[in-house]
Amino acid sequence: MRGYAGTSISTLVKETGLPKRAFYHHFESKAGLLAAVMAQGARGFFAAMREAHRDPPAGGTPRERLGCYLQRTGEVFAHREEFLRLLLVLVMSNEAREAREAMAWPGSTALSTRSSRRTASRSRRSWISSPTPWWRSARR
């Protein structure tokens, strides 16, 4: 394994079979690709969290409702392991410093192509619109 810093755009192009021009058409840099991957992962993660907590338990003790909430959250975490692992690596390491800059919202320079800007815009909305906790919807 080479990691983020050890993988060049040439290697990415060779491994995926995409022409280099196609890569640069969609992503300005390797950091732009990583930012798009993380944006997609975040959208999927938060959508799964919203779905998992859509129908909160109506009855039961607070302890039972909390147990249900934690169980559902754990299931989402277990099914989104790759995204969470990548997120943790990016947060904890210095290896992907340029990727962090690409993921800085808004106005990232690595997300300057049209399709990447659309992805970033949708992602910002996803990061902002977190799931409604079960205890808020249960009171209504």
From TrEMBL:
Superkingdom classification of source: Bacteria
Keyword annotations: DNA-binding, Transcription, Transcription regulation
Signal peptide segment: none
Keyword Transcription found: yes
Basic residues bias (residue ranges): 115-125
Pfam families xrefs: TetR_N
DNA-binding region: 8-27
Comp. bias intervals (Low complexity): 126-140
Region (Disordered): 101-140
Record GO terms (molecular function): DNA-binding transcription factor activity; transcription cis-regulatory region binding
Boundaries of every HTH tetR-type domain copy: 1-45
PANTHER family: HTH-TYPE TRANSCRIPTIONAL REGULATOR BETI, HTH-TYPE TRANSCRIPTIONAL REGULATOR RUTR
Protein's name in the database: HTH tetR-type domain-containing protein
Organism of provenance: Nonomuraea gerenzanensis
